[in-house]
TrEMBL record:
It comes from Humitalea rosea. This is Drug/metabolite transporter (DMT)-like permease. It is a multi-pass membrane protein. Keywords: Membrane, Transmembrane, Transmembrane helix. Residues 2-129, 142-277 form the EamA domain. One of its GO terms (cellular component) is membrane.
Amino acid sequence: MVLLCAAWGVGQVAMKVGGEGISPLAHAGLRSIGSLALLWLWCRARGVPIVPPEGARAAAALCGALFAGEFVLVYTGLTYTTAARGVVFLYTAPCLITLLAHLLLPNDRLTRGKAAGLGLCLVALMLAFGDSLRLPSGREAIGDLLCLAGAMAWGATTITIKATRLRFAPAEATLASQLAVSALLLPLGLALGEPGIFDPSPLILGVLGFEIVLVAFGSYLAWFWLITRYRVSGLAALSFLTPVFGVLAGAVLLGEAVTLPLVTALVLICVGIWLVNRPA
């Protein structure tokens, strides 16, 4: 899970760079189309079904809609608010996932230790991005709410997988249903007047390739496999590492500054993760 967070953190930088040459919805759609093609080859080589079992198809369709909706909400939200504010509101999702797990999953209850750990992670995230968390303008408030709605879609997707027959389906089939629906974001973006790939430079195409192979195919396949086998509250807490890795990747790859609040936030997040995952 730590490796996945590192990949997603670098993926945030890749999305930022790729956005300089690909419009948002087309970007997400192209990523899903490429990853779906790789997943089909993977399933064909391994003899794994790519279609969810019959009893899980309604849940798979719902997850696909939520998965695509998350990207629409977050990409749109980031056109109204800053990236730092968007990250903070998007990463309320682990808290939402843990609360829903407490309500809907009998084997994943919220304890005082888990609540303290999640609260510490959220405070640490606000510390890391505190400079950007002033009172929002009207435009920023719209973007903040859209990113918060994206967090809700992320949480609902995770719990739907865990609480339905999808938890018994191969991870490949679960991922395929979500990539298939989110691939529709490409024609949606073009229908809304997006230019698609407007700067097909080697850097932009290389970034898109990284997102297709390592993020949307490799890391998401591993994520859906993990969901079916481990407590979602523990996985959700670990996901707080993603924005920290994203800032660190920005420092290494884009020359952005690493501040003392960021380092402090990383320490606090590690303590919070320990509180959530420690044995009872």
